[in-house]
Amino acid sequence: MSSYSIVYDRWRTDPEGFWMDAAQDVDWITPPTIALDTTNTPFYRWFADATCNTCWNAVDRHVEAGNGDQAAIIHDSPITGTQHTLSYRDVQEQTARLGGALQNLGVEKGDRVLIYMPMIAEAAIAMLACARIGAVHSVVFGGFASNELAVRIDDCTPKAVITASCGLEPNRTIPYMPLLNGAIEMASHKPAACIVKQREQLTADLTQGRDHDWDAVVPGAQKAPCVEVGGADPLYILYTSGTTGKPKGVIRANGGHLVALNWTMKHIYNIEPGDVFWAASDVGWVVGHSYIVYAPLIAGCTTIMFEGKPVGTPDAGTFWRVISDHDVKALFTAPTAIRAIRQVDPEGDFIGKYDLSCFHTLFLAGERADPATVEWAAEKLNVPVIDHWWQTETGWTIAGNPSGIELLDVPIGSAGVAMPGYDIRILDEGGNEVENGTLGAIAVKLPLPPASLPTLWGADDRFLSSYLATFPGYYETGDAGMKDENGFLKIMARTDDVINVAAHRLSTGEMEEALARHPDVAECAVIGVTDALKGQAPVGLICLKGGTNRPHGEITAECVLRIRETIGPVAAFKKVGVVARLPKTRSGKILRATMVSIADDTPWNMPATIDDPAVLDEITITLKELGYASKA
Ligand code: COA
Ligand code: AMP
Fold first, then answer.
1. Whole-prediction pTM value?
2. 284 CB near ligand 2 (under 6 Å)
């Protein structure tokens, strides 16, 4: 029996005992007496009778253990040309002071704090400070526009906001205050206070009475101690795209998150305390929450916060420079980042310029890892390249290659095997398990493991209808896939309106809602087409209202701007065409999948239920004009 099988079987035979053992490796104020509370199923709660503090586990306990001088966070910004390191003692001091400043502004245990920050160390400090005082943070990615911020402000009703004066993209400086002010103006809920970190690249005008300069209120604040919270109390809310315009507020609870994330660092990533771990993502995404901030710090490692891009800041060698400069043992990034590097440096010449002897493993997630990219990286870097599959909802790996237990020989194109905690089944539409090699919906048998979402913020019914209704007794992942003859899992596609653009999870339904609000648009569809760099790209098709005689170019340009201004530049919505009609079934359902196949030049069959097949001729012509359907 392989080491992995032994560990997985140990979990299967005694799931609660397995997680109670893992719980020994974190500090509790009151240790758990039971692992899983099942009194209100299907709302499962892990470590509900325990108390703890996540910031204590991520910061203070390492200082107490004598590791206060160890580097906790290295900020590396090729955009500003700066690097600086915060030790665990520095992080303890800064989180305690910021926690005190938040308390001075009236923030108490259970209150929400919205964090809208670029990739600077203060973003991690802000998250940890909330955890320290028992406040619930909700980080919003910097590439989202005011409207997205406003929706989140109204949903989680934060008492305070922590932000910075600007974010830095390679080609421009993004002023954050106008975006935040716009959002607060739009929202019905008004946060009482904002703490603003002024950056030297662009300072912000502060609103008297509401805004406070970080450097004025934080350094002199009293140091807040770590507040005792319940194991099932929320640590944070992270919004993610669903099928509608309203994002889902995924809740992460303190106790289960501590236990599961701590377990993953050794067993999945093969990382020991003191090692340097780098997740090249953004704190606005789940990868940033779990693997830039919490897991590496909980495990006593050094984490890297990188403010830059894989290419162009300044070149396609920047990742290898960071690995070499900071002794990075494992890098976790999205396949799109590797594709971007490969496009610019196909021979991998930059790799040879750096001493990468410290580097052991490359982990990929966030979107499908295409075999060509995996093979290129494995050959050029000469380290194992591990694909693993997970979601905002789970917070950590559902399927992967447990390199700290045993490096399995996973075939390229597979995301690996189920991690302990996950009983993965491939189901047909009727909820029956399919044979290996057959495509189906990927579901996970309940209960989900520690750290997975217990419910959605303020939306128990939506939690049930979105995830638990289709297959009773299972969590519906929203992904389709199959197991091969040896049980290795392949993730094929989403089963809903979610698309993955440069590993950013976006909702085409949300884009359609925004386009439909354009005064000249009668009807629209947004589809995710294949993109060589970003994996997928959104393409819009709009039908105009009768009597609209404005030039089409003007209207489509307004549509592009509308998505940029309502959802944000990160949607990368650049292409939209005008058509007379959209293809539909006789019952009126838009045939999005057929349009995707036409755009991608993949084989498709005329849907039997199509209302008027002739509509597809115009769609094909329009997609060709937009640069797709080249073989049609
Ligand atoms: N704040 C403001 N704007 C942002 C932003 C932020 N934090 N992040 C991205 N944007 C903007 C970009 O400037 C760009 O704007 P533009 O349309 O004016 O050029 C747009 O959003 C799209 O950004 P991005 O997806 O980063 O594309 P890109 O063309 O700038 O770079 C890649 C392409 C492949 C290099 C880039 O997508 C990348 O690094 N991907 C890795 C993704 C990743 O790590 N995802 C995390 C999930 S694990
Ligand atoms: P997010 O919640 O933003 O992390 O996005 C989760 C979604 O990204 C999943 O449901 C998948 O559709 C996709 N995804 C994440 N990791 C992988 C992977 N390794 N292979 C294929 N798809 C992935």
1. 0.96
2. no
